[in-house]
Design goal:
Strand content: under 5%
Helix content: 55-70%
Largest sheet: none
């Protein structure tokens, strides 16, 4: 599907109805889990960011199957980055309580 048909309210999610919400939640969980297990450091942040980029590269290389929206999406990346920002806030709040 052409990239210009990728909408913020895309309803082609795999688990949830909304694709961008899936990216937000997935990357929130991935970064928060990494931060809780290993601390919030450069390796965790770099690995998480690389995960987001490689996921979109994978989508960009996958041919459109006529049903699922695939292709590199800046909007998907931005949704994931926002999820990570939320994870950083939650991690900072939990660290402040200790």
């Amino acid at each position: 599907m052409p990239w210009n048909q990728d909408r913020w309210k895309s309803t082609n999610g795999h688990i949830l109805k909304y694709d961008k919400l899936e990216h937000f939640i997935r990357d929130f969980i991935v970064l928060l889990a990494g931060a809780l297990l290993f601390g919030l450091n450069g390796a965790v942040l770099g690995g998480w960011f690389l995960f987001i980029v490689l996921w979109e590269v994978k989508d960009g290389l996958r041919p459109y199957d006529g049903k699922n929206i695939e292709g590199f999406s800046w909007k998907d990346m931005l949704a994931g980055l926002m999820g990570g920002f939320a994870a950083i806030i939650v991690f900072a709040m939990t660290a402040a309580d200790k």
